[in-house]
Amino acid sequence: MNLQTALLDVRQMGEADRLTVASGTTVIELMENAGKAVAQAIEKRWTARPVIVLCGPGNNGGDGFVTARYLAATGWPVRLALLGSQDHLTGAARHHADLWSGKVEPLSPAALDQAELVVDAIYGAGLDRALEGLAADTLIAAAQRGLPVVAIDVPSGLMGDTGETLGAVPAVLTVTFFRKKPGHLLLPGRLLCGDVVVADIGISPSVLEAISPITFENDPCLWIAKLPRPQAGGNKYTRGHALISGGYPMTGAARLAARAAARTGAGLTTIAVSALALPVYAAALTSVMVQPLAEPGDFECLLDDRRYTAFLIGPGAGTGEETRSRVLAMLATNHATVLDADALTSFADDPPTLDGAITGPCVLTPHDGEFHRLFDPAGDKLTRTRVAARRCGAVIILKGSDTVITAPDGRTVINSNAPPTLATAGSGDVLSGIVLGLVAQGMEPFLAATAAVWLHGAAAAEFGPGLISEDLPDLLPGVFRRLYGQP
Description:
Layout: H1 10-22, H2 27-45, E1 51-55, H3 59-73, E2 78-82, H4 91-99, E3 104-106, E4 117-121, H5 133-144, E5 149-152, E6 173-177, H6 189-193, E7 195-199, H7 207-211, E8 215-217, E9 241-245, H8 252-264, E10 268-274, H9 278-284, E11 289-293, H10 298-303, E12 310-313, H11 321-332, E13 336-339, H12 342-345, H13 351-357, E14 362-364, H14 368-374, H15 381-392, E15 395-398, E16 404-406, E17 412-414, H16 427-440, H17 445-463, H18 472-483
Helix pairs in contact: 2-3, 2-4, 3-4, 8-16, 8-18, 16-17, 17-18
């Protein structure tokens, strides 16, 4: 995958530092570059004002000493407070502390007096214990006073690998280095980091080849080359035929998914419905075809038609034996299959049967509740989705404000473009329809799932406040035009 949006966990970032040092750049130089980058980010955002730099006892604190020195050199009124004794600093942190010519105050809430801006250089992303003592008291006091906080690497108390908080307070700006970490995107970390700036401190992108990251931030550069596009010599049959199992009496969900699949580019889209539901679907749909199921076995006969290229079941399907049977029949074809909502809940009492039935390309789109019914909810979000995807052999889209998309081989993408307006009934049905439309056109399931989540978020962002799920499919053409560079 494109390494431009790679995310590095704490261990991998340490390896990037080690490889850089091994190639001839010293830790002292890296720390100098890091602190300078933080100072430049601050100067770009604010005019000079009284600032207090809060430094910890490790390398994060060393970055803070450099930041303080650069701000002071450009005329900022800077004070610096240190957690612990300067005599206990070692290595590059001690080197840069010795270059600081100003006073070093003890770190405490009193150090915040007269400050209008706070730089948090206490702890970095590797902290694995709760923030406590003077560090916690001082940051809490800064938050209570409403002082803007700039965090170096991550807000102190935020776990860089998971986004979990161990007492972090919100920053308005976080300056990190080389690549983001998962904790910058996963909740609650994303909400605590404020704006995130990724600074170049002299680490060559070539180190990523040795690190081989498998976690990425969602961006079109990951999948745009594989995104299906209408071809001059093509026709509706070459663009795939999507089949959806429609439910009754909850008919809206499948109709939303069908419209989304069609807007995403599927050449033909069909909803298979019971004869009882036919009038409702037929009256509401025009370009989407409706196939009545009048006799036992009609559904299985549809699946035997090789002209269908991908299936979806779940939206509005209802839970129970009929849905289970249809899921298993779809999976048995080894066609690309998308399972959502009721299709997942129907296996809550028997997850192994679903796992065993997934032998072909498959995408599951659970929200947290549906995920917990099928999989062990233990662990952070990345860990549990990876374990689940490996167990069942399907691509998993674990939906939320920080949607995670994971392949069975461990490749994972974290999405960050979804606005809060997507928290509306039916938006998940639209997402499953977008996935369906892409896999129906032959897009590989993991990339299709990743692209679908981004397209879903981009469409919602285009509409803005007042969004309802019915708006989303008709916003997709505008998103595609921009992706294709068309006016």
